[in-house]
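[Meeting: bench + compute handoff]

Bench side (C.D.) handed over the final construct sequence. Compute side (W.E.) agreed to return the predicted structure before the next meeting so the bench team could plan truncations. Sequence as handed over:
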Amino acid sequence: MPDLLLELFSEEIPARMQRRAAEDLQKLVTDALVERGFVYEGAKAYATPRRLALNVVGLPVKGQDVREEKKGPRVGAPDAAVQGFLKSAGLSSIDQATIVSDPKKGEFYVALIERPGRATQDVLAEILPAIIRSFPWPKSMRSGASSVEPGALRWVRPLTSILCTFGPETEEPEIVRFSIDELASGDITQGHRFMAPGPIKVRRFDDYAPSLQRARVILDADLRKDIILHDARDLAFAQGLELVEDEGLLEEVAGLVEWPVVLMGTFDDSFLAIPPEVIRTTIRANQKCFVLRDASTGALANRFLLTSNLVASDGGATIVGGNERVVRARLSDAKFFWETDQKVRLEDRLEKLKSIVFHEKLGTQYERVERIAALARELAPLTGADPDLALRAARLAKADLVTEMVGEFPELQGLMGRYYATLQGEQPSVAAAIEEHYKPVGPSDTVPTDPVAVAVALADKIDILTGFWAIDEKPTGSKDPYALRRAALGVIRLILDNGLKINLRQVVDGHLARFAANRSETENAFLVENLLSFIEDRLTVLLKDQGARHELLGAILGRYSLAAGSQLIVIPERVDVLGRFLESDEGKNLLAGYRRAVNILRIEEKKDGRSYVEAPDADLVREHGQPEEKVLSEILETTARHSREHVMRGDFAGAMLALSELRPAVDAFFETVTVNADDNRIRQNRLRLLSAIRETMHNVADFSCIPG
């Protein structure tokens, strides 16, 4: 079966765009082929700093022949309808159509359309220019003489050549001929920019990849990553050091080079007085280099590893020297920032926060700090923290935003605050809270456990959620510019991971008052309920990712919503208890009885045009009820009371156990008692009994959410 080889060669493809671009190219081409009926055996895309490549294996030489019947108008239809049919079917005369007779519809025309499959090469020449012209680069540019023309090609950087061949393994493949602006497809690529810059003629992928490797280009990004990682580890080991691994940096560096060569540089050990995170951030951000640590102590070493894009004639000495000079300059700046920042205490920096606008409708960073501090003090007793320490930590939490170091490296916010707080003698819990109050920043991030840090972290996230709800700036669809979904997930994880018993409705309702606005109580209640519903949605996503069933979540949240004042901490446990109950024989049978009761009620209430929500008439049951009816009436009252008591004590398993006591009575009732009795008073009273079953179970969980 023939293969397709496509390469799009340009001046540069930014590292951050390469992997996504390769995925897009593969999907766009293969989807277009499949839409036209072309199946294939496999496909793989590749990216280097200068090229996107795609290999599609096992394509047919041509598409499948098409044979189909096209139904036309009835015999005797108006001429306009007949002519339209002939045109759509590709017929020159109605005599070319067949007349088919249908007993119900009469006689009508049918055209037999036969189209031979198109040559794959022709289809490729048709679809590839359109894909290239509409390629979804995040940023793109025009270039060349035709760039002023309407519809000129836009590419991430100037596209300089297109290689496209197609053919079977046993034959010489052909060039798939097409043009885009001034560029015509061919069978030529180029090797390494410096070490093998000449043209390379290519036949198919089997010689394309080896030819590039001989020309000092490693096509596969994952292979480049492996080479960098293993060479870096080996170089470090040879010096008694360990590589500080960094997957994000590794991915980026692999996208900067086509022929990776790892080299080691050094810097003056006096810079090791700077916090190690600062050194690592400085070297990573400015030079895309890895740092190393002592294998025995774990302390940061005064060495770094860089990745060159060529084998230098001097063994890399010049390249290393240039990087060392830049690293030295950047570390000198960092050392200056570090020493300068220590001259001003964190609390003395708070005044500067008054000049930093957090949001035009939510005030300055200083005002935000004041809100967070007040809320953290209120939350402290619930997290087990000292209120004064929580207040102190919250007031200092954002002070490092106006330090020189964080101004240069915003990603160090919080961390630098912890360092400066420690140096000025703050309590360890206060210093830790300054760093950790931003956490968790993602689903895999760690969650603070120190009570002070938990109080400040919760206050920070609740403030941002409540604030943006107060000004009606909520996430919409996929847009979430203020990361409010992440903040909601952070609140959830802080509560669950730390086992906190917090009434979020009270907290949010109280904090909303700190945002000045002329809102009625009804408007405030709506905002609170809407925000709590948003948090419930994020909780549902989290628990479903952990394996919880959607219907069980609905059953629990339908009864124990955050808006109703339920504590978030109880929800996962109750979902688990409910699931185990419904897997037991008692649970399955009781659920079957509940569904039977609900189905009868739904039918009869619709027929009668009323709801049977009144309590059953106990006297009527005693006088005219059957034995099983009397037993159910008595046990319903007991079960309802016991289950309510268990729920109020927080014993959900006990409430489930209480419900299970209903099962024998419900089973016996349906086996022997006819609900629709001839006596309408008895019938209606039995419907009230069924309603009592429904109400008793709904007081524990919303069983209507569980499908039958």
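W.E. noted at the follow-up: The first strand starts at residue 3 and ends at 10. C.D. will use this when planning the next construct.
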